[in-house]
Amino acid sequence: MPIINSIAAMADDMKTWRRHLHMHPELQFECHQTAAFVVDKLKEFGISDIHEGIATSGVVAIIDSGVPGDTIGLRADMDALPIEEATGADHASTIAGKMHACGHDGHTTMLLGAAKYLAETRNFTGRVALIFQPAEEGGGGAGVMVDEGIMDTFNIAKVFALHNVPGKELGSVFTNPGAIMASADTFHVNIKGKGGHGAYPHETLDPIPAAIAVAQGFGTIVSRNNRALDDLVVSVTQIHAGSTDNVIPESAYLNGTVRTFDADVRDMVERRMGEIAEGQAASYGVEIDFVYERGYPATINDPGAAAFAIDVARDVAGAERVDGNASKEMGAEDFAYMLEARPGAYLFVGAGEGAGLHHPEFDFNDEISPLGASLLAGFVERANPA
Question: Residue 136 catalytic?
Answer without folding.
Answer: yes
